[in-house]
Design brief:
about 70 residues, mainly alpha, 4 helices
């Protein structure tokens, strides 16, 4: 399955199920569903841009392993 085949509500449900940290869930939803950049994420969640990238990378890795 490919993420582009999923609706936003399906993506949100899967993130809710597979990502355990509330902060990471919120960040991943804002990235995947709302399309925020790392700069925008860092401002919204009071993180450095590098921290936002790391969180998205790690949470995405967990998310995508369940789509295969």
């Amino acid at each position: 399955m490919n993420i582009s085949e999923l609706s936003n509500s399906q993506i949100e449900e899967l993130i809710q199920e597979w990502i355990h940290s509330e902060r990471d869930r919120n960040i991943l939803k804002r990235r995947f569903i709302d399309g925020l950049t790392f700069g925008e994420l860092s401002e919204e969640f009071h993180l450095s841009e590098r921290q936002a990238q790391n969180i998205v990378y790690k949470a995405s890795k967990e998310f995508f392993k369940h789509l295969i």
